[in-house]
């Protein structure tokens, strides 16, 4: 059990790091060097760790769920919308980068499982459980972050399509972001998990 917990935490840690770095890198490509100047375009975990989101919260969820569930986050990579080439459009692109990265990770490891099955590489079969964990955690991160509530990535994607008269409402709502996310974490997963399970069943039949 201890090994599985450590493995889940490591997968979660590096998945959220890749998620956050992708935000900063796309912002950099679109004209904003805030993440680069903040030295956050790195895979070094020390630059991204959040004591509560990266360790304490995932451990708490793990033990509360009896070892069935783990979730967390890294420190958000900063970006400045005013430095983007086309702020209205690019905010959505920056937001989409994180969930897309997690989906690409899930698809990559799903492909490995498919190859193991296609070529009947039975000596690699024990890896299947661990690869499935990687896939599940990354699907979970992608789906959760696509919820269109600030400061989650889905809200930034929606922002790109909002009429200007709704933009002030969006920015005001973002002030309550942490509170909204905590409500989602404790009460919203009953709606998220069925979607995650369905996508997981498609990638790991």
Structural class determined from secondary elements: mainly alpha
Put simply, the count of helices is 9
Biggest pleated sheet: none
Low-confidence spans: pLDDT under 50, at least 5 residues? Answer: none
Tally of discrete structural domains: 1
Large-scale geometry: globular
Q: Rg, please?
A: 18 Å
Mean pLDDT: 90
What level of helicity do the residues show? 55-70%
Strand content: under 5%
Tally the beta strands. 0
Walk me through this protein's architecture.
The chain is mostly helical and 205 residues long. The protein has one domain. It has nine helices and no strands. It has helices at residues 2-29, 34-37, 51-64, 87-118, 128-145, 153-159, 167-174, 177-187, 189-203. Helix 4 runs antiparallel to helix 5 (128-145). It is globular, with a radius of gyration of 18 Å. The two termini are 25 Å apart. The mean pLDDT is 90.
Give descriptors for this structure.
single chain; 9 helices; globular; mainly alpha; 205 residues
What order do the helices and strands come in, and which of them pair?
Elements (H helix, E strand, L loop, with lengths): L1 H28 L4 H4 L13 H14 L22 H32 L9 H18 L7 H7 L7 H8 L2 H11 L1 H15 L2
Helix pairs in contact: 1-3, 1-4, 1-5, 4-5, 4-6, 5-9
What's this, in brief?
This protein is mainly alpha-helical and 205 residues long. 67% of the residues lie in helices and 0% in strands.
């Amino acid at each position: 059990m201890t090994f599985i917990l450590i493995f889940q935490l490591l997968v979660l840690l590096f998945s959220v790091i890749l998620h956050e770095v992708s935000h900063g890198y796309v912002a950099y490509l679109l004209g904003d060097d805030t993440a680069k100047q903040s030295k956050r375009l790195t895979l070094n975990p020390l630059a991204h760790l959040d004591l509560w989101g990266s360790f304490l919260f995932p451990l708490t969820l793990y033990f509360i769920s009896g070892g069935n569930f783990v979730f967390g986050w890294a420190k958000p990579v900063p970006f400045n919308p005013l430095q983007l080439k086309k702020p209205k459009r690019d905010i959505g692109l920056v937001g989409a980068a994180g969930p897309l990265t997690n989906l690409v990770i899930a698809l990559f490891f799903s492909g490995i499982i498919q190859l193991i099955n296609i070529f009947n590489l039975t000596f690699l079969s024990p890896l299947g459980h661990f690869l499935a964990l990687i896939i599940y955690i990354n699907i979970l991160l992608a789906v959760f972050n696509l919820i269109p509530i600030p400061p989650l990535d889905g809200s930034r994607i929606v922002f790109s399509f909002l009429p200007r008269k709704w933009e002030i409402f969006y920015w005001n709502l973002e002030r309550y972001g942490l509170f909204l996310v905590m409500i989602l974490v404790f009460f919203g997963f009953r709606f998220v998990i069925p979607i995650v399970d369905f996508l997981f069943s498609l990638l790991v039949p």
